[in-house]
Write a structure and sequence with these properties.
InterPro entries: BUG, Bug_dom1, TAT_signal. This is Tripartite tricarboxylate transporter substrate binding protein. Belongs to the UPF0065 (bug) family. Pfam families: TctC. By secondary structure, the chain is an alpha/beta fold. The protein folds into two domains: 166 residues, D-Maltodextrin-Binding Protein, domain 2; 121 residues, Periplasmic binding protein-like II (D-Maltodextrin-Binding Protein, domain 2). The chain contains eleven helices and twelve strands. The strands form two sheets. Strands 1, 2, 3, 5, 6, 7, 8, 9, 10 and 11 form a ten-stranded mixed β-sheet that branches. A two-stranded parallel ribbon has the order 4-12. α6 links the parallel β6 and β7. The longest helix has 22 residues. The termini are far apart.
Length: 328
């Protein structure tokens, strides 16, 4: 048997990659495509779906329909997607809820991570920690000291149990070894209203939604939840910069594109290539910036690794907190 040297191995790998790219470049849908968005029209997940649909329709000339199937925290639309043929011509625009958090949060979820083939990242954006001005803390170290000195005394709001803003707070408190009282609301708007009224003391909120109140002095921002600062507000630090206990803290709401696990690999690769083109377009970058988000450009493999890490991270946070919800 002939020996293998490094050059021959690299050559074989390059040939395999070239073959994969060639197959991706020749794949085309054979009929109109459907992009299922498990969220209402107008939100960040829907924006991701519209970007996908516009790009794929322009690239391949087939109509691409965005099908909003909201409800159940994204589970209804996700389940509908899995009923479609696994041919790569029906895609799912998923997000952090149904495609990472739900696996641990919900009892008897009707699908598993293995049901999906990650295709591409689409959007990422941080939450921001904001306080009511009456809270006697102007820096994160002061706020941490206040939380520790008054266990459970401060109230924090969120858009609902198990939502990203709630779990931002859960993980934050876990890492600090501190406690506070969670007050869930039906959506972020009523939670923000109660924070502005001083009925709760702090919350983790969408960066853009909170920014106008911060700039007007109605709220005090301490930092963003992402690993890095937001390019939209570069003077606002990442929370992990400000406390050693938060060195691992990294929370972004995110949206990504998925196919069925049995979809052709060529279809997955072709869709990824088109989405990377879409996310490089300045008008899409500007559209995302208006929501406080950024394009999340990935290869298929990078996005698969990202989703796996997100699923594992929230599994650990949810289990430590003892959160379990029933599907309704």
């Amino acid at each position: 048997m002939p020996s293998l040297n490094r050059r021959s191995v690299l050559g074989a790998a390059a040939a395999l990659a070239a073959t994969s790219r060639a197959r991706a470049s020749t794949w085309r849908p054979t009929r109109p495509m459907r992009v299922i968005v498990p969220a209402p029209a107008g939100g960040i997940t829907d924006i991701g779906g519209r970007i996908v649909a516009a790009q794929l329709q322009a690239a391949w000339g087939q109509p691409v329909v965005v099908d909003n199937r909201a409800g159940g925290g994204g589970i209804i639309g996700t389940t509908e997607f899995l009923r479609a043929a696994p041919d790569g011509e029906t895609l799912l625009v998923g997000n952090i809820g149904p495609q990472a958090i739900a696996y641990t949060l919900f009892r008897e979820l009707p699908y598993a991570p293995t049901a999906f083939a990650p295709v591409s990242g689409l959007i990422r954006g941080p939450n921001v920690l904001v306080l009511h001005p009456s809270v006697p803390a102007t820096t994160l170290p002061e706020f941490i000291a206040l939380l520790r000195s008054r266990p459970g005394a401060l109230n924090y709001g969120s858009s609902g149990i198990g939502q990203s803003p709630h779990l931002s707070g859960v993980w934050f408190l876990q890492l600090l070894g501190a406690t506070a009282t969670h007050v869930p609301f039906r959506g972020s708007a009523p939670a923000l209203t109660d924070l502005l009224g001083g009925n709760i003391q702090f919350m983790f909120e969408n960066l853009i939604a909170a920014s106008q109140h911060v700039q007007a002095g109605r709220l005090r921002a301490l930092g963003v939840t992402s690993a890095e600062r937001s390019p939209l507000f570069p003077d606002l630090p990442a929370l992990r910069e400000l406390a050693p206990e938060l060195a691992s803290y990294d929370v972004s709401t995110w949206v990504g594109l998925f196919a069925h696990s049995n979809a052709p690999a060529e279809a997955v690769a072709a869709c990824n290539a088109e989405i990377r083109k879409a996310l490089a377009q300045p008008d899409n970058a500007s559209r995302l910036a208006q929501t406080g988000s950024q394009a999340h450009v990935t290869t298929v493999e990078q996005f698969g690794d990202f989703v796996s890490r997100e699923t594992a991270k929230w599994r650990d946070v949810i289990r430590r907190e003892g959160l379990v919800m029933e599907l309704t």
